[in-house]
Design brief:
With 220 residues, the protein is an alpha/beta fold. The chain contains twelve helices and seven strands. It has a single domain, classed as P-loop containing nucleotide triphosphate hydrolases (Rossmann fold). A seven-stranded mixed β-sheet has the order 3-4-2-5-1-6-7, with helices on both faces.
Length: 220
């Protein structure tokens, strides 16, 4: 998580304003939602003003996990039915703010909602209020929604699941997502198995498991 945060901070230096970062993957269940939530928590605990936004309107799993009792969220804010202040959830214990997505029925025109001018205006507002705006997006292969976010997302983090996602799936994901590929901050290899990794990178196992790491409190 700290490596991702450092990449975000370095990318935002020298006058660049890379405050809105979207997290996506090739396929569902690769761990993008867990990664973005963990990063948001890390940033919030470090004292940053950070808001986590669920823009996976077809499958808002993050909202079901973090705000299961929410009855309104980003859709109501975009539609002008709710103010941002009344839609967000805040956890005083960790300084994290969360804007959920509440869907009682399937959102058919989700890509149109994400590409709407009112959505861009909402994120301009979030950009002015927070140090980081982290956005959980849909996977690229089954849904076009993430491609509709290039109007308000500055850069993207792509999550790949170790041992499950094929290179062909990744190539297919980016084949029609040129703007996302060009604005890619980096790739996270999630759920990596260190034992198996040593088969491809023999010395890597020892790098991650040795006495030097223990001196810094990094142990198994």
């Amino acid at each position: 998580m700290r490596s991702i945060k450092l990449a975000v901070d370095l990318n935002s230096g020298f006058g660049n304003s890379k405050k809105v970062i979207g997290f996506t993957s090739s396929l569902p269940q690769e761990g993008k939602s867990t990664i973005v939530a963990s990063l948001a928590l890390l940033m919030a605990q470090a004292g940053a003003r950070v808001i986590l936004v669920d823009c996976d309107l077809r499958n808002p799993s993050l909202s079901r996990r973090l705000a299961p009792n929410a009855d309104h969220g980003i859709l109501e804010v975009i539609a002008g039915k709710m103010t941002l202040k009344n839609a967000v959830w805040m956890d005083p214990s960790n300084n994290l703010t969360f804007l959920p997505a509440v869907t009682n029925a399937r959102v058919i025109h989700s890509s149109d909602i994400l590409s709407a001018g009112t959505t861009k205006k909402l994120f301009e507002n979030l950009r002015s209020r927070y140090d980081y705006v982290l956005v959980d997006l849909t996977p690229l292969v089954p849904i076009v929604d993430t491609r509709a976010t290039t109007g308000f997302v500055d850069c993207y983090v792509f999550v790949i699941e170790w041992g499950r996602t094929t290179s062909e799936a990744v190539k297919h994901a980016f084949s029609d997502a040129y703007n996302i590929r060009e604005n890619m901050l980096g790739v996270v290899l999630n759920k990596a198995n260190i034992n198996q990794l040593s088969r491809h990178y023999p010395s890597g196992k020892e790098y991650y498991r040795n006495k030097y790491y223990a001196q810094y409190g990094l142990t198994e």
